[in-house]
Amino acid sequence: MPLILSIALTHVAGRLRQSVVSVLGVTLGVGFSIAMAALMEGSQHDFIATLVDAIPHVEVTDDQRDPPPPPAATRFDAVNVIGARPDDDTRGLRNPVRLRAMLASWLPGRMAASLNGQAVLRYGGKDVAISLTGVDPAAHLKISTIAEDMRAGSFLDLAANLNGLIIGDGVADKLGAGLGDTVAVSASSGAVRRLKVIGLYHTGVTQADDATGYTVLKTAQVLFSRPNAINRLSIRLDDVNAARAIAARVERMTGYRATSWQEANEGLMEVLVVRNIIMYTVVGAILLVAGFGIFTIVSTIVHEKSRDIAILKSLGFEQSDIRRIFLAEGLLIGLVGSVLGSGLGYALSLTLGSLTFEVKTEIELTSLPLYYSPVHYLIACAFALFSAGVAGYLPARRAARLNPVDIIRGAA
Amino acid sequence: MSASETAATSNHGGPGATTEAGPLIEARGLTRILPGLVPVTLVRDIDLEIKRGEFVAITGPSGSGKSSLLYLLGLLDTPTSGEVLVNGKPTHLHSEAKRARLRLSTLGFVFQFHFLLPEFTVAENVMIPMRKLGRLSHDAMRDEAVGLLSDLGLADHVDKRPDQLSGGQRQRVAVARALANQPPVILADEPTGSLDSKSSEQVFEILRDLVDRRGKSVIAVTHDLDMAARMDRRLHLIDGRLAAPPAEGV
Question: Which residues on A lie below 8 Å from B67 (Cβ)?
Answer without folding.
Answer: 409, 412
